[in-house]
Design a protein that fits this description.
Phosphotransferase system IIA component; kinase activity; globular; mainly beta; 3-stranded antiparallel β-sheet; Glucose Permease (Domain IIA); PTS_EIIA_component; Dup_hybrid_motif; kinase
Length: 159
């Protein structure tokens, strides 16, 4: 009734195995300058990309390079696979979820052929972005480290 006991945090986990890094280190200015929101990046070592949060799949781009997830608190999370990969017209990506599907952390979202992305002259960086920052009070500090998908990246604190 008064909001007591409501969860004011959101667990975020690593979306893929690889090297975790702050979003500010991504070579694409749209991400590194946080034009779309804050988040984190991972230089992947495996092709499988998992959900970093629980929620509902709100968007699957026709080119399969990005998937949007909406949490139960309304936070919109974008999982973007590779940099400038929209031009690949979906070829190195295989989706494993459908729009409207309820998912949890560690649900397999997609497979990205890392070698095909790199062979096209692009980076395979996976970027996770919290796009509606107006809901967020604090995002977890990202420290460079090796991660496995499902490792805790931190808790987002809602307003």
């Amino acid at each position: 009734m008064f909001g007591f006991g409501k969860k004011k945090t959101q667990l975020v986990v690593a979306a893929v195995d690889g090297e975790l890094e702050p979003i500010t280190e991504v070579t694409d200015d749209v991400f590194s300058q946080k034009m779309m929101g804050d988040g984190y990046a991972i230089e992947p070592t495996t092709n499988e990309v998992y959900s970093p949060v629980s929620g509902v799949v709100s968007t699957i781009f026709p080119t399969k390079h990005a998937i949007g997830i909406t949490t139960d608190k309304g936070l919109e999370v974008l999982v973007h696979m590779g940099l400038d990969t929209v031009d690949l017209k979906g070829k190195p990506f295989e989706s494993y979820v459908k729009q409207g599907q309820k998912i949890s952390e560690n649900t397999l979202l997609s497979k990205m052929d890392i070698e095909a992305v790199k062979a096209s002259g692009r980076e395979a960086t996976v970027v996770v972005v919290y796009t509606n920052m107006d809901l967020i009070n604090e995002v977890p500090e990202v420290i460079k480290s090796s991660v496995q998908h499902g490792d805790n990246v931190g808790d987002i604190k809602y307003k």
